[in-house]
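Q: I have two molecules that I believe assemble together. Could you output structure tokens for the complex as a whole instead of separate predictions?
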Amino acid sequence: MFKKMIVVRLFLILGLLCSIFFAGCGIFYKINYLDFSFAPQKKTPVWRVEAHLTYMPTAKESKITFARPSKNVHFKILDESIIAKGFQTKATNDSFILTGSPSPEQQDIYYRLLIYDVKENLSVTEEEVPSVTMPVLDDETLMIAKEILALSTSDEEKNQTKTLIEFINKNEANELVYTYFPPQISLKEKAEKIIELLALQNIPARLIRGILLEEGKKSFSPDVMIEVYDKEKKGWILYDIQTAQKGTPLNFIAFQKGNASLFDVAGGEDSSIKYSVLKSLNSSFSLAKYRAKNADKEPFFNYSIYNLPIEQQNALKWLMVFPLAILLVVILRNVIGIKTMGTFTPMLISMALVETGLLSGLGCFALIVSIGLGLRFLLSKLNLLLVPRISAVVIFVILIIQYFSIIGYQMDWKIGASALFFPIIILAWIIERASIIWEEEGLNHAVKEVFNSVLAAILIYFIIENETIRHITFVFNELNFVILFFTMLLGTYTGYRLTELKRFAPLVKRNKKQAKRKK
Amino acid sequence: MFLKKFVWPHELKKAGVLNMNARNYRVIGLNNKRRLYPLVDDKVKTKELAQTVDVQTPKLIGVIRAQYEVKNLLSLVKGFKSFVIKPAHGSGGKGVLVIKKYTKNYFQTASEKVLKYTEVYQHISNILSGLYSLGGRYDEAILEEMVSFSDIFKDYSFQGVPDVRIIVYKGYPAMAMMRLATKESGGRANLHQGAVGVGLDIKTGKAIAAVQHNVPLTHHPDTKADLMTLKVPDWETHLLIAAKGYDMTGLGYLGADIVMDKNNGPMVLELNARPGLAIQIANQKGLSHILDEIDTYPQNLSPQERVDYILNRKK
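A: Yes, here they are, computed for all two components at once.
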């Protein structure tokens, strides 16, 4: 008799374990590769960098070269586009090349870049030792340079580059520094001069141009940094020439390495470029698609919920919380033992409560049911047949909802406006059942059953109303397999229900008393 | 204290209390085949089956199958002083109307309520449209002769119909109780409506214990009769009728509701494929151990042999 049950249980436990394993893998994957999170409101900043180039064509043919950031591990590119009317665009690894023969009027060319997941990256790619080109300087300048170097490296040599930049920045008023770095020079020129000084010490260094991601930034020149070859690490390390900070700043996007300019216009004049940076916060979720693409997991992603249109996603998000609510109903009935009207009635009420808010929803529910019961009482005097009578109750409910909505809207009365969200048929059945129980077993029983159902509905409400829970059941919807197997496993639960511990209590108590008497 | 009303699961287990989940899963699920349910869910069929094994049931006056037949009510019951209207697929006594006396326009029920003809007409319409049937299907209304209750139980019941419920497991009577109507239960014998349940000794039919609303008591709350003196006469016939329920239906776990007729002796009122668990409280005894024991009893005995087996066992 019990053998079959044990086999079924083992099978279901196996299923439960498998589903937990599957869900675990799914969650691990989604957190690590798609950056999903258990918190519902996680936002990812997306940076929009725009370079706006204007120039006047002078020749028949124009050729424009834009530097583009090379594939990098410390940020991800969401989208990259060139908007240039009448130009042909060719993309290479580190640049866009535009060719065309525009009309002789001012040309506007936009280069747009959307960047997300900007992360710190401390790794250094190994490269061979580059050769150092000795700067060509006149004697006087060389003298000053040597003196600056001597001054800046007077203490023991820890980090020559860092100390050099710090020295220059701190001692702007120093005569030598003032001469070597006149205040009117641009950042680019300053960087070039620092590279010269480093070259004199036989340290290879190069210019880096890019954009510092700062909200609302507008600038006519790119940000300049230098990269210095580290002989120990055998790779390039970035230095901020303004702060002497070592290592790539978190918000720096390098476009161009070396001396070539960021953009190049051949066949035109009066070219100018303007950079602007905008930051927007997108939900992590909406970027999942691009993450999957970057991780080469696109086919997998295309067949998941997250690739559906937003309306469908929202509908599914609502649907995905149902299994949990159903599990709760099972627990309430088979483990706790609360008797409710209809199996899923409480669940449907609680779904409505989520839409309306708890208090106004409950108020509205109570009002509709009591008005409905009153009408149903009048209806019973007419001696109608069952089906037409229930149908009449359904129509009553619809009319009540209609007037509630109108009154609720006009008087800005939240309870009235809630009416629309309740399932009509469920309300009608609750009214019909309650009135029959009232007639047959008295008002007490009727109130008790309605009360139990509402109580169960409130319990379920508190679970499914929770934004985090809804987010988790949707985003990590593999968990629904776990819920499925757990529900089925509860189907073999043959233990006592909580309410039975009270119901059958007199049985045990009497036996105890008898046992005492015997003693 | 609130928690004092509860007991630990292991205490219930020790007392052998059968719970709802276990009843559904182990007892009903394994012993009652789904296809056999219609035999007991349809009371007309039950009556026909009972005839095949010589078990008496209240005499069938007629069946109202469709709405247009409802108006024939008075002509159908012509010649019967009293009658009972019940849904063919009802359960738990829902929709049962006992008419003690009637005229053309007024009907007096067993609980002394007077109903108008239109109300009775409406009641039958409700039955037909499935209000009381299991699962809300369209139903039929059965008209049957009212049992002329034996006076023996007169003092034990407030109005209404006292009946004996016997749980039959694999053909063996397992546990029995008598249900007595009270003022609170409105003349009905349903325990959850406040009727008194009296546990009966399965071998003798004598009262063991009594409860109302799960609370033990010794005297009937309305008639003040001492419930512990209750003894069901002709007990062996009761057991035999119950045991035959198994042969009639093939249901391994069933509840037989038996009433005592003044003239014809015990007769089956209805059989139930999902009898409730309140009988354990009325008996102050769990059902599990008894079912486990019956599992060891011989199979393939005749109803009479099974009853003898129960009567002759040592305990």
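A: One point stands out. Chain B touches chain A at residues 5-9, 11-15, 17, 19-22, 25-26, 30, 67, 94, 118-119, 121-122, 125-126, 129-131, 193, 209, 211, 214-216, 280-281, 284-286, 295 (CB under 8 Å).
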